[in-house]
Design a protein that fits this description.
Strand content: 15-25%
Shape: globular
Distance between the termini: 47 Å
Order of helices and strands: HHEHEEEHEHEHEH
Largest sheet: 7 strands, mixed
Structural class: alpha/beta
Number of strands: 7
Strand order of the largest sheet: 4-3-2-1-5-6-7
Radius of gyration: 18 Å
CATH topology of one domain: Rossmann fold
CATH class of one domain: Alpha Beta
Helix content: 25-40%
Number of helices: 7
Length: 237
């Protein structure tokens, strides 16, 4: 059994028992986003702040954050391609703010696929591009260079999703990356704290289990609904 998300052992000395153990599940993703947004108040109305939502579960959370901060909202869509060293390793293609970032292990790719792996990779990237069009509705890519980027998801368990997003985002040259989630495991929080410039998290319950346990309603939008939310947010800004 893998226990690393909960980091079995003594509590970190700076953590309260309430933060670690006595966590009440959030009603839903949107309410968690409103609570998270208040913790990000120092970034409110900043000239160079962008909020990125990790699709799918991060979108309702991030919409509340973007509305509160009065900051632009865009999307991160991740397609895991390979796990070359087994569970925990990953090679990904990521659509980040409308720009495609492919892990360097797959670059250069052949112009014409020839092997089964080539065909699989090509089909996966085409599918990611289709999802991007569906979710972003053809909006032009967002310039993330020199921006303070608030990277939002619904939670962190192992940290693999957030790690892939941060890795792709670093290639876009942001001034600062703030990972923001309502809930995280101790191990996941520690892993992402070492990669982001800042991490904002409301609760780190133990034992953790999985992210969905910390929401009474863990309904996540599908791609079509994400597209509707994204289009509506663009009109509101």
């Amino acid at each position: 059994m893998i226990n690393f998300p909960d980091l079995d052992g003594a509590d970190p000395p700076s953590e309260s028992n309430e933060t670690l153990n006595q966590v009440t599940p959030f009603p839903d993703l949107s309410s968690a986003g409103r609570e998270l947004a208040s913790k990000l108040a120092p970034y409110r109305e900043g000239d160079n702040v962008v909020v990125l939502a990790i699709v799918l579960g991060g979108v309702p959370v991030a919409r509340e954050v973007a509305n509160f901060l009065r900051a632009p909202l865009d999307l991160v869509i991740i397609r895991r391609l390979l796990a070359p060293q087994g569970p925990g390793s990953q090679i990904c293609a990521v659509s980040i703010g409308g720009s495609m970032v492919i892990d360097k292990e797959l670059i250069p790719r052949p112009a014409v696929p020839s092997t089964p792996l080539d065909h699989f990779t090509n089909d996966a990237i085409v599918e990611l591009s289709r999802r991007e069009q569906n979710c972003r509705r053809g909006r032009p890519a967002t310039d993330l260079s020199h921006k303070a980027v608030i990277l939002v998801d619904c939670g962190i368990r192992s940290g693999s999703t957030m790690r892939a997003a941060i890795g792709a985002l670093r290639t876009r040259g942001p001034a600062r990356i703030v990972a923001a989630v309502p809930v995280a495991s101790l191990g996941g929080h520690a892993a992402i704290a070492s990669l982001a410039d800042e991490i904002v998290c409301l609760a780190r319950p133990r034992p953790f289990g999985h992210v969905g346990l910390w929401y009474k309603d863990f309904t996540r939008p599908g791609d079509d609904r994400v597209g509707e939310v994204f289009a509506a947010t663009q009109r509101e800004q």
